[in-house]
Structure formats: structure tokens, C-alpha cells
């Protein structure tokens, strides 16, 4: 098996540093937006490639509900 092709697991600290986001934001994204994360016992682990793909696919984007916006012009 070629170890060069195996992506290492990243810790919560590494992912917060990589994304420049707080722990609280990461946990909200996991719970509310389906951020790819794996819980091993008490530890959260991440694959950077999975997180990057999640971001590229719009998983982290803020969605607004246009139907519920204030329509004061009506």
C-alpha cells in the first residue's frame, strides 16, 4: 500500500486553523449544514478533501428564504 496516497485525518484544531473559523462555527456547520466530520470516541476528525468539496458544492453557503423577506414596497 502506498502511504503517499493516504490522506491523514485532521483534528478539530487543525480544521479551525485551516478554515479560520471558531469551534462553535464548526459544530454548527456539522449539526445544521452537514459538514463532513467523523466522531471517533470523543474526538472529531476531518478529511480536508471532504471539507473542501463540501465548501465547493455550496454546503457552507448562507441560504436566504426569499419568500419570507420583508416586502415593504408592496
Describe it:
By secondary structure, the chain is of the alpha+beta class. It has a single domain, classed as Orthogonal Bundle (Multidrug-efflux Transporter Regulator, Chain: A, Domain 2). The chain is 38% helix and 12% strand. The protein contains three helices and three strands. The chain has helices at 12-19, 23-33, 48-56; strands spanning 10-11, 38-40, 43-46. The chain has a three-stranded antiparallel beta sheet. It is globular. The model is unreliable at 64-74 (pLDDT under 50).
Low-confidence stretches: 64-74
Structural class: alpha+beta
Total domain units: 1
Number of helices: 3
Shape: globular
Helix content: 25-40%
Rg for CA atoms = 17 Å
Quick overview of this protein structure:
It contains 3 helices and 3 strands; from the N terminus they run E-H-H-E-E-H. The chain is α+β, with helices and mostly antiparallel strands. It has a single domain (8-60), classed as Multidrug-efflux Transporter Regulator, Chain: A, Domain 2 (Orthogonal Bundle), CATH 1.10.1660.
Summarize the topology:
Elements: E1 10-11, H1 12-19, H2 23-33, E2 38-40, E3 43-46, H3 48-56
Antiparallel strand pairs: 1-3, 2-3
Amino acid at each position: 500500500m502506498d502511504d503517499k496516497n493516504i490522506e491523514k485525518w485532521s483534528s478539530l484544531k487543525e480544521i479551525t486553523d485551516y478554515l479560520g473559523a471558531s469551534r462553535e462555527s464548526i459544530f454548527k456547520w456539522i449539526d445544521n449544514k452537514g459538514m463532513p466530520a467523523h466522531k471517533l470516541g470523543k474526538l472529531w476528525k476531518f478529511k480536508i478533501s471532504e471539507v473542501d468539496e463540501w465548501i465547493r458544492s455550496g454546503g457552507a453557503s448562507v441560504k436566504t428564504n426569499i419568500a419570507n423577506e420583508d416586502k415593504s414596497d408592496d
